[in-house]
Amino acid sequence: MSTSLEHLAAVAAAGVPGLAPVAVGPSPDDDADFRSAVVLDAEGRRWRVRAPVTPEAEVRLETEHLVLRSFTPAIRSRLPFLVPTAVATVEDERLHAVVHSHIEGEPLGLDALARMAAHPDPAHHRHVPSAEPLPPLSVQLGRVLAAVHALPPSLVLDADLPSYTAGQCRERRLAELRRAEATGRVPAALVGRWERVLGDDAVWGFVPRVVHGDLQEDDLVISRGRVRGVTGWTDLHVGDPADDFAWLIGARDARFAAAVLEAYAGTCRNRTFRAPDADPDPHLLDRARLDAELAVARWLVRGTDRGDAATVADAERMLAALERDVSRAARGAAGAAPDGTPGPAGTRTPGGSGAPGGSGAPGPTRTPGGSTLPRPSSPAAADTEAPDTEALDAGAVRGAAARAHGSAARAAPDGAPGTPGPAQGRSTTR
């Protein structure tokens, strides 16, 4: 498939009656499985055209197109953000490109979002008469997540998209762990750490909700300090709300995820909001942390399945870094007093052991995104910024996470509980 900007503009013109392109520019915020462009028409409207590079990417694109068509005006009116409008599909060299409405703004990196939340630009928050002052970015993100989780399950079921019980979500994570363990390349300390979380019944006693499913910073359209839109709707399903918090775990600032969760909980408590829960379950960030760490295991499995030595080596490097952080946390926990006060090493441990599930929080830990995992498992504990302890190239490791999220590695293994059937045979990635 030709992927020049001019060709993509022609695809958009073919799909949208009356569209007369006058300018076209790149849309670089897509992953490597797509070629994208933003087309400006003669009436000053902007359209985004996306062309898949592989058949797998085409399936993901068709899924997103189906989801976007399911967002009725009534549903869109309930959301504090914009969702692209699906306009057309165009067959092009045996693959199908899609045309969506374009939302003005740009994605920002995770740490840039955290900095914006902690230190907002006064110009963005200047009060405008008759307009509500702009809330901090962490509050906006909490509201975004609460609104997604309050969507009616019928949106998913009517589109024949997957729906998982809490038990199936747990079994899918366990299946991911076993597949990674079968490679013989996952350190035993990490296997034990993840097994402790998966074996804790209290952690998995949540109520499934509608979730975005593959939310990342690239899916947020930011303009002047405001979350204007959310994209990447290829994995909408009913499942674990923690899935939509996992990307936050990669921020270097340990306060960011906790601040978003606090805003999320505050939104759910608001009686004027059609909240899914009065309060999020207390183990939401524990499961989000597990998901973030298992992203490295999924990356390993992807490389192993494809015989890609470079990907396997990349994953092994990240797993080794994660194991070192867990070991340091365990040593710090051993030197801490039983009441959690700093021990000889000066390390405060909210719990005890290094398991993220309920028996204690580890020290700073790397995700495939290249940042440290926050130490606390509750907002009250999030009072310090996690130090950048690993001598890894953050950009390179974060790039590996993006590749892992943009692959079929995130899908449940064949035959695993909760795996989509033939009618739902869609990738669970963006």
TrEMBL record:
Biased composition (Low complexity): 330-348, 362-384, 394-430
Chain segments carrying region Disordered: 330-430
Biased composition (Gly residues): 349-361
Domain Aminoglycoside phosphotransferase, residue spans: 30-265
Gene3D superfamilies noted in UniProt: 3.90.1200.10
Classification via InterPro entries: Aminoglycoside_PTrfase, Kinase-like_dom_sf
Pfam families attached to this UniProt entry: APH
Protein name per Swiss-Prot or TrEMBL: Aminoglycoside phosphotransferase domain-containing protein
Native organism: Kocuria flava
